[in-house]
């Protein structure tokens, strides 16, 4: 039997019972009637009927109607209780046990049933929220990672990470950009093929992820180029960059038993409130270009200037040859 039929039968039975009480019980004197209680009970009854209509409407759309059934039962009990509360304003219901059971007990039991229904619903809702959060973490992790290197990708840098940087006070927290590029990668690709080129990129990414600290972020910026955001000033960034360059240069990487000589070029720029992220990124990229022009296999620190760094301003950069 559907909830609609149950509600119709319940209201019909309650109406018949109410008419019976009105015709067979002693009326309360008008002077003893409280108009405010009458208005309050009428409002409660209308509200309960509206909630029952909503409950039935939601039950039709829900695949799990168990919680809805408990809400439905609780609302019916409250409807019974408040109907007798309203009748009690006009008649003296006798015997008193009828008033107690159909008024006080029905209201109290209705509240308990609704509380139980809310408890069950909250547990299921929290479980669904937890599942959605876990799925979101998985999906976000997958969408934010470069599939080849498992470093963060350019999309996360542009969509998520930059928004986090907008809240950073660079006077209190020092951050530095480290741009890294594999030297002579095009020649390597031409000589050994793209498959080995991908392996070299993966090898470089592994070195970078192992040499940076837990609080640092590593991105595959594009192709054979990487970006590392270091928590610290340019001196800290230089030490981390030194480790990356030295480890990569001395790490074993061979093709068909032949050891491959490989190096990196690195440009560093410390973030500041005077420049936007894009301007600082451009300075780091320009410092990387300076490292390429200086012979590769080295680190260039961009000079501290209020204007975006350009390669022609070579005097504002510090060269660290390793």
Task: Walk me through this protein's architecture.
Residues 173-304 form the GGDEF domain. This is diguanylate cyclase. This protein has 322 residues and is α+β, with helices and mostly antiparallel strands. It has two domains: 3-138, no CATH class; 154-321, Reverse transcriptase/Diguanylate cyclase domain (Alpha-Beta Plaits, 2-Layer Sandwich). Helix content is 60%, strand content 14%. The protein has nine helices and ten strands. The chain has helices spanning 3-24, 35-61, 66-87, 96-144, 154-165, 185-192, 194-211, 234-250, 277-293, and strands at 26-27, 91-92, 175-182, 217-222, 225-231, 254-255, 258-259, 264-270, 298-301, 318-321. The strands form three sheets. Strands 4-5-3-8-9-10 form a six-stranded mixed beta sheet. Strand 8, helix 9 (277-293) and strand 9 form a beta-alpha-beta unit. Helix 2 (35-61) runs antiparallel to helix 3 (66-87), helix 6 (185-192) crosses helix 7 and helix 7 (194-211) packs across helix 8 (234-250). The longest helix is centred in the middle third of the chain and has 49 residues, at 96-144. It is rod-shaped and about 105 Å long. The termini are far apart.
């Amino acid at each position: 039997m559907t909830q609609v039929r149950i509600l119709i039968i319940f209201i019909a039975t309650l109406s018949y019972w109410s008419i019976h009480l009105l015709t067979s019980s002693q009326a309360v004197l008008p002077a003893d009637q409280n108009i405010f209680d009458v208005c309050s009970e009428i409002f409660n009854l209308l509200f309960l009927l509206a909630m029952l209509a909503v409950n039935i409407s939601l039950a039709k759309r829900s695949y799990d109607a168990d919680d809805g059934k408990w809400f439905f039962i609780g609302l019916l009990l409250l409807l019974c209780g408040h109907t007798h509360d309203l009748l009690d304003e006009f008649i003296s219901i006798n015997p008193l046990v009828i008033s107690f059971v159909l008024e006080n007990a029905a209201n109290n039991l209705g509240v308990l049933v609704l509380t139980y229904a809310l408890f069950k619903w909250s547990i299921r809702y929290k479980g669904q929220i937890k599942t959605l959060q876990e799925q979101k973490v998985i999906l976000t992790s997958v969408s934010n990672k470069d599939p080849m290197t498992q470093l963060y990708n350019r999309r996360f840098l542009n969509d998520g990470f930059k928004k986090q940087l907008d809240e950073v006070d660079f006077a209190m927290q020092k951050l530095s950009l480290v741009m890294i590029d594999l030297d002579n990668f095009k020649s390597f690709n031409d000589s050994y093929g793209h498959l080995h080129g991908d392996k070299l990129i993966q090898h470089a990414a592994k070195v970078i992820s192992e040499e940076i600290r837990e609080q640092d972020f590593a991105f595959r910026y594009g192709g054979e180029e990487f970006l590392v955001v270091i928590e610290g000033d340019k001196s800290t960034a230089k030490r981390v960059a030194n480790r990356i360059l030295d480890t990569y240069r001395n790490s074993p990487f061979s093709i068909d038993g032949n050891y491959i000589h490989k190096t990196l070029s690195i440009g560093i720029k410390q973030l500041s409130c005077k420049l936007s992220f894009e301007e600082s990124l451009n300075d780091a990229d320009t410092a990387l270009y300076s490292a390429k022009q200086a012979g590769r296999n080295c680190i260039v620190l961009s000079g501290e200037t209020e204007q975006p760094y350009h390669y022609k301003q070579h005097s504002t950069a510090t060269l660290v040859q390793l």
